Amino acid sequence: MSKIAILCDSLAYLDPAFKEEHDIFVVPLSVTFSDGTYRDMVEIDDKSFYAKVEASGEFPKSSQPSPGAFMEAFDEIQAKGYDQVLAIMVTPRASGTFETLKMAAAQEEDLEVYPFNSQIGLQAQGYYIEAAVKERDQGRSVEEIIANLDKLSPYSKLYVILDDVRYVLKGGRLGSAATALVNFLKIKPIVKVGQDRLELSARTRSLKKAIQRVVESLEEDAAKGLPLRATISGRKDFEPYQSLKAIVQEKFPDMRLDEGIIGPTVGVHSGPNAFALMWSIDTDKLSLDDL
């Protein structure tokens, strides 16, 4: 029977305890300041990253892993006795990491590597990883796991609320038309990520209104009757983050609600005070076989 390793990039920002317990392999992206380049959550974590941004006043840059970084991960995976790799990556709309993975996979001779595009990012990407762990531990094949993971896509949503648009304008991730509009109107944009799309979802004049919009989107999906889980990510000392958390807890008292971070590489483009709400199917309450 094949032994399946699960590999991801650092943009899933997995809980360290979960990563260690389930032997998840992570290839980090990097951020670059004027004084050097740091590997995401290896040489710089979220707190030290945002402190450095605020102290330096710099707009750092991000970079994807090299093919060599993936080859090194493959060597580590093989050394631990695995013979197959399910590699669950961030959407290509946010990073070229998935394409780099495929280049490295084509060169790998000893392992069977299965690239999987989660079509999303942050802890919503982590939902796919958690589901894959559960499926693997049930003895499913890689092909069976991938078939079930594909079912999550229509139900997985990620909304990022931007407080300071300077960072996303520098990165150009929204496209020229949306960037010009955001810059002109001085708004608090909501960026929607999912199903391999990254787009400006709404244009609001305040963070309070932005919070209302994303909660309304969650309400619409929750009303469809399927069990959902949600995650709020960002800086816990930012008051609007706590406001969003309180509203979600009040409106959805029975929904599993986790908290996560927006780490360095995403923070390059979102800025220090961005925060996010995401959700998907709660696979503890509904098996992917039943979707």
Care to describe what's here?
The chain has 291 residues and is α/β, with parallel strands linked by helices. The chain folds into two domains: 4-29 and 64-151, Rossmann fold (3-Layer(aba) Sandwich), CATH 3.40.50; 155-281, Hypothetical Protein Tm841, Chain: A,domain 3, CATH 3.30.1180. The chain contains eleven helices and 13 strands. It has helices at residues 16-21, 46-56, 67-79, 97-107, 122-137, 142-149, 166-171, 176-185, 207-222, 239-251, 264-270; strands at residues 4-9, 25-27, 30-33, 36-39, 61-63, 84-89, 112-117, 157-161, 188-194, 197-204, 228-233, 256-260, 275-281. It has a six-stranded mixed sheet with strand order 10-9-8-13-11-12, sandwiched between helices. Strands 2-1-6-7 form a four-stranded parallel sheet, sandwiched between helices. Helix 3 (67-79) packs across helix 4 (97-107) and helix 5 (122-137) packs across helix 6 (142-149). The longest helix is centred in the middle third of the chain and has 16 residues, at 122-137. It is globular and about 55 Å long. One of its GO terms (molecular function) is lipid binding.
Helix content: 40-55%
Shape: globular
Do you know the CATH architecture of the largest domain? 2-Layer Sandwich
User: Widest sheet: strand order?
Assistant: 10-9-8-13-11-12
Instruction: Please summarize the sheet with the most strands.
Output: 6 strands, mixed
Low-pLDDT runs: none
**Fraction of residues in β-strands:** 15-25%
Return the domain count: 2
Q: Averaged pLDDT, please? A: 93
Count of DSSP H/I helices: 11
CATH class wording of the largest domain: Alpha Beta
Order of helices and strands: EHEEEHEHEHEHHEHHEEHEHEHE
Distance between the termini: 27 Å
The tally of strands reads: 13
- Give Rg in angstroms: 19 Å
GO molecular function: lipid binding
Function: May bind long-chain fatty acids, such as palmitate, and may play a role in lipid transport or fatty acid metabolism.
Keywords: Lipid-binding
Pfam family, one: DegV
